[in-house]
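Field reference: sequence -> structure
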Amino acid sequence: MGKASSCVILCGGEVLCYKSAAKKIPPGAFIICADSGYNHCEKLSVKPDLLVGDFDSIGEIPAGIPAITLPAEKDYTDTYIAAMEALRMNFSEVVFIGIGGGRPDHTIANLQTMARLSRAGLRVSAADGKSEMFMLTAPGKLTVPKREGCLFSVFAFSDICRGVCISGAKYALDRYDLSFDDPRAVSNEFADTNPVVTLEEGTMLVAVTLR
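Structure field:
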């Protein structure tokens, strides 16, 4: 793996504020660009360590950068294959930048990819410069970063998340069983401190979004 313990995967989705998104890149992180995620590099002031994709979105593969070239017809997205490469390289943390916007099917696929890594034991988050998302697998605990003008939501990403607790927010939960089709924990409000979310079983998504 080298010296880095963190990996950043740049995806081809929207980055709404490059300055803020760049702050989510851990120092010394290994940078993987999933196809057109390469287009974010200059504005994020990063140099890619690896390119992954069929490169239909950027055309010519940049010279001097290691690349995994994929066929245009394949079973998985470029982002998923980049994530599996990060898993193979044994990173402990993966940060995705630019997973949303544009095609909703790709956004959903990217969230599923985040869940896959979380279930494999990695710390997983995503950012676009305006919002943040965290995937948490039990037994797990997350202190949600408070952001002005934002709400936070909790969604089950397994059939059921058992023992979900939310403290330090306007709306609390105490060992609630949150199912995949239950949106009860959407649009919670921050209080005076950073809220804490815990769960006993399952995988869930915690999203901090603008009002």
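Note: Residues 161 and 202 are 5 Å apart (CA to CA).
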